């Protein structure tokens, strides 16, 4: 007898730096990762491209307009397969919205402190380090 498997959910995230080299983070309002800091992003809607989803999700969660660039990497967290793209912010005003209770720019020291306090989504710091995309500042 075959046991049905739960389908993978395709998601996207945006890796965005400000001119000072700080990384854009949001505090998740809902699971997975409720209350923890993460890259902004979310589910790809049916018929939507990854690029369109990144633009929509970052606008909804951060108030920023972005242009998605190259795929930096992919991670799987439970049922969620997350494709993270380098993005350039082109406008908007940083404001938490949709699935975010807070949004902020994080420098290297801040990101390390969040990691040490256990406030980052699981393995985010390690993943960003392995992809060589930690904040420069």
From TrEMBL:
Lipid biosynthesis keyword on record: no
UniProt-listed PANTHER family: GDP-MANNOSE MANNOSYL HYDROLASE (PTHR43046), MUTT_NUDIX FAMILY PROTEIN (PTHR43046:SF14)
UniProt cross-references to SUPFAM superfamilies, sorted A to Z: Nudix
Pfam families reported in the protein's UniProt record: NUDIX
Family: Belongs to the Nudix hydrolase family.
Source species taxonomy: Bacteria, Bacillati, Actinomycetota, Actinomycetes, Pseudonocardiales
CDD domains in UniProt: NUDIX_ADPRase (cd04673)
Gene3D superfamilies referenced in this protein's UniProt entry, alphabetically: Nucleoside Triphosphate Pyrophosphohydrolase
Recorded GO MF terms: hydrolase activity
Protein name from the UniProt record: ADP-ribose pyrophosphatase YjhB, NUDIX family
Keywords carried by this UniProt record: Hydrolase
Domain Nudix hydrolase: 7-128
Cofactor: Mg(2+)
Organism: Amycolatopsis australiensis
InterPro entries, sorted: Nudix_hydrolase (IPR020476), NUDIX_hydrolase-like_dom_sf (IPR015797), NUDIX_hydrolase_CS (IPR020084), NUDIX_hydrolase_dom (IPR000086)
Origin: domain of life: Bacteria
